[in-house]
Amino acid sequence: MRAQPTLLFCLATFLLSAFSVAHAESGLASYYGYGKAGKGELTCAHRTRPFGSMLRVSYGSRSIQCRVNDRGPFIRGRIVDLSVPAARALGMMSAGVVRVSVE
Predict the structure, then answer these.
(1) Please, are residues 44 and 100 in contact by the beta-carbon 8 Å criterion?
(2) Does the predicted TM-score (pTM) go above 0.85?
(3) Residue 97 pLDDT more than 60?
(4) Which of 32, 36, 65, 86 has the maximum number of C-beta atoms within 10 A of its C-beta?
């Protein structure tokens, strides 16, 4: 039995996307006032990225790098929770919840 070219293409695309080292995602971000990091450190909570990994979070014309040190967010539709210093650096404090890009 010969596999269909479409099936092989779909399988190859899935495997490449599933095992890529870094992938971009966009969605909602919020910030939290508690934390496990030192004062002023740019940290964040992400559901799946490894602890200690660095994420580039972009909002509007601003972009920061923050370190994953917690799990979350646990609110549907949100992809990352930022520490107060990280949210301040992005300029999102007054908005509270904003659409960001995460790499």
Answers:
(1) no
(2) no
(3) yes
(4) 86
